[in-house]
Amino acid sequence: MAADLYSQDPRERLAPARLLAPWTPDERFSRWPLHWFGTANAWLVFIGPSPGDSPGASPVNWDRDRLPTLGRPNEQFASYRDSSGFWSRVRDWTAHAFADAGVFTEARDAWSVAMLGNIASSQAGDAATILDAELRRGLSSTRKALELVRPRLVVPLHKRVTELLLPLLSEIGYAVVTRGVTEVPAKNQRFALYRPNWFELQRDKDSLLVAEAPQHPSRRNFYDPVEMDRYLAAIIQRGLP
After folding, report:
1. How far is CA 34 from CA 62, 78, 106, 116, 149, in A?
2. Backbone φ, ψ for residue 19 (5° rounding)
3. Which residues, including other chains, have CB under 8 Å from residue 6's CB and lie 6 or more apart?
4. What is the DSSP letter of 82?
5. Which of 6, 36, 1, 37 is nearest to 21 (CA)?
6. What is the CATH number of domain 3-239?
7. Cβ atoms within 10 A of the Cβ of 27, count?
8. How far is the C-alpha of 96 from the C-alpha of 133, rounded, in Å?
């Protein structure tokens, strides 16, 4: 795929990708990891510890959605619904944040440069119960996916993901050049603020922004969409050239 497909500007990723449609994944994607749904040149990649255990309104369409798309949304990302509302919130979060950042006004454009993946393949309802060994086993497929997709922004959905991801990125040549903490108002918590970390990493001419989610989108009672949208929009703006 052409270099323009990996621009630091998400709009510049989407435009040439659309010109290649219809697109069929080549042999590089033959061992694509399970539970990584999105586009092959995703600018934004969410990474969770596991796909969770909330049942869906319908079965996952593996034949249609297992492999990445290009120039259009992966339909799992765009339309799948589960009982916890997780996927709906991820879709809304993605679309609203890109819109608030002044990048895309259409939701399907935002979804066309986005992906959601998971380190472990077991469907654990509580990330704290996943064994360290299982997460470590998933790092090779995580590395493969990130090296193929070459995102500009990665959003860990859990602190355990951050703890695993930073050493993995170091192994493939990325170095942290700056870091910080953002304060995000919390809802229905004993504390007033979430304090997600962000990291800017560099590898040769490639740069990667890692910014933690203030909270996991599956937690309905603690989810304030306005604050989450505002936070991610600011992070997206930070990642623009």
Report:
1. 9, 17, 28, 11, 15
2. -70, -20
3. 13, 41, 150
4. B
5. 1
6. 3.40.470.10
7. 6
8. 36
Give the tokens for residue 207: 């740069």
Q: What share of the chain is helix, strand, coil (3-state, %, to 5)?
A: 40, 20, 40
Question: How far is it, in rounded angstroms, from Cα 20 to Cα 17?
Answer: 5
Q: Rounded distance, CA 49 to CA 57, Å? A: 22
Domain map of the chain by residue range? 3-239
pLDDT digits (tens, 9 = 90+) for 94-132: 999 999 999 999 999 999 999 999 998 876 656 677 878
Three-point CA angle 115, 119, 122, nearest 5°: 110
* Averaged pLDDT, 133-143: 92
- Residue 207 CA to residue 174 CA, distance in Å, equals 8
**Mean of the pLDDT values across residues 179-198?**
97
Q: Token pair of 135, please?
A: 């997460």
